[in-house]
Amino acid sequence: MTDTPAALREAHHADVSGGWLRPAVFGAMDGLVTNIALIAGVGGGGVSPRNVVLTGAAGLVAGAISMGLGEYTSVRSANEQVAAEVAKERRELERHPEAEARELADAWVARGLPRELATQVAEAVRANPEEALRVHVREELGVDPDDQPSPWAAAISSFVCFSIGALVPLLPYLLGFTSLWLALAVGGVGLFVAGAIVARFTNRAWWRAGLRQLLLGALAAGATYLIGALIGVGGGIG
User: Fold this and answer.
1) Tally of CB atoms within 10 A around 63
2) How far is it, in rounded angstroms, from Cα 45 to Cα 231?
3) Closest Cα partner for 221 from 37, 39, 34?
4) Which Pfam families would you find in this protein's record (predicted)?
5) pLDDT (tens digit per residue) in 153-185
6) Which of 15, 56, 64, 139 could be 163's S-S partner, Cβ–Cβ 3.0 to 4.6 Å?
7) How many CB atoms lie within 10 A of CB 177?
8) SS3 sequence, 67-134?
9) Which residues of 134-163 are buried (b: 16+ CB within 10 A; e: fewer)?
């Protein structure tokens, strides 16, 4: 079978614009680590299973809301900054088109394009104001003004994935089990699976990515368990 060149296939690259994948991965990992650490901390302190569930549920709701609002604000602020820079570049193109064309040609020459060809292409781009704006923004800011991530997609994916991740270590308690170690083991499995799934998008070894996430979560859980055990139920402040 003839191998079709990647350049001739549509969508041969993954979506790396960061609209939903980054906040989804970050949300799921944060949800897992946060609630595993919370459960380990309060469980290590000797609280009742009911209080473990209460703590985990509060961590899930508060964390999911915080993640969603944070992602929305972060992405929207970044998009507004890009929009402000695009408006600035548009004004420069309107006021000083020749200087902007020379600047574009200089950038291409610096990359190895012959001066004459770079100047010809820059002048051709200049003839189309909207295309000139897109090219200048991509060259000078490194972003595509027509392909900015959606703050709503980031917020929703982060909220949902954090909630799912935070629910995993709570499942044993919600199903009637009362063993802290079972909850932590289930959370550890969730961390490993999440890391392995992320490896699917990055072409990394799935087992290595899974072990990395498991190790990071174990360190967080170990630290909070130790603090909880040192403080204990009867050792609270006051």
Assistant:
1) 21
2) 6
3) 37
4) VIT1 (PF01988)
5) 999 999 999 999 999 999 999 999 999 999 999
6) 64
7) 13
8) HHHHHHHHHHHHHHHHHHHHHHHHHHHHHCHHHHHHHHHHHHHHCCCCHHHHHHHHHHHHCCHHHHHH
9) bbbbeeeeebebeebbbbebbbbbbbbbbb
Pair of tokens at residue 224? 């909070």
Q: What's the rounded Cα separation, in Å, for the pair 128 and 58? A: 55
pTM of structure: 0.84
Which tokens belong to 89? 């570049």
| 3-state SS, residue 23 | helix
- Identify which of 67, 228, 177 has the alpha carbon closest to the alpha carbon of residue 187: 177
CA distances for 209 relative to 193, 194, 203, angstroms: 9, 9, 10
Six-digit token string for 68: 């969603």
Q: How many helices (H) and strands (E) does the chain have?
A: 9, 0
3-state secondary structure at position 182: helix
CA angle (83 as vertex; 80, 89 as ends), nearest 5: 145
| Nearest-angstrom CA–CA distance, 113 and 119 | 10
CB burial of 86-107 (b: ≥16 within 10 Å; e: otherwise) equals: beebbebbeeeeeebbeebbeb
What residues contact residue 74 under an 8 Å CB cut-off, 6+ apart? 154
Does residue 150 sit in helix, strand or coil?
A: coil
Contact 174/53 with Cβ under 8 angstroms?
yes
What local confidence, expressed as pLDDT, does residue 198 receive? 86
